[in-house]
Amino acid sequence: MLPPSTSFPGTGAGVGTTNVDRVAAAPADPAGEVGARELRQLLAEVRAGGLLDRRPLYYSLEIASTVAMWVGGWVALVLLGDTWAALGIAAFLAVSSTRVVFIGHDAGHQQVFGSHRSNRLLGLAAGDLLTGLSFGWWVPKHNAHHANPNQVGRDPDIAVGVVAW
User: Fold this and answer.
1) Rounded to whole angstroms, how far apart are CA atoms 108 and 57?
2) Are 129 and 137 in contact (CB under 8 A)?
């Protein structure tokens, strides 16, 4: 893990510093009232604009078209078998699998359905069943990422490991 004051050569001023450095350089606001007030105002504007509203028609069409693509890709792969066309189908399946995972992502954010249970079932279907990505492992990891975006040592998405996402 890098020390909090580490910056990276050639990245420009301010890039490569941590939130600790930014907070130390920020004007004193002991109660944190300025940032909280701005956040409340932004959240009110976002809600008033309907940006957090669920979109059932969109998700109905997205889920139906994505599942149709995904199933169609697997059917085509089975029908064509061991041919060079399988490479094209593999690229198509990569795109359709990515769409499946993004539906699971939205379900993980409780954005698709009004109930936690329905979102969890959709996430389990998209992740565990169709793509092999453990929804139960991914949701807490992704929530930790949102709570601490790009903070070394706190954001699991930038941690060093066997596989870095």
Assistant:
1) 19
2) no
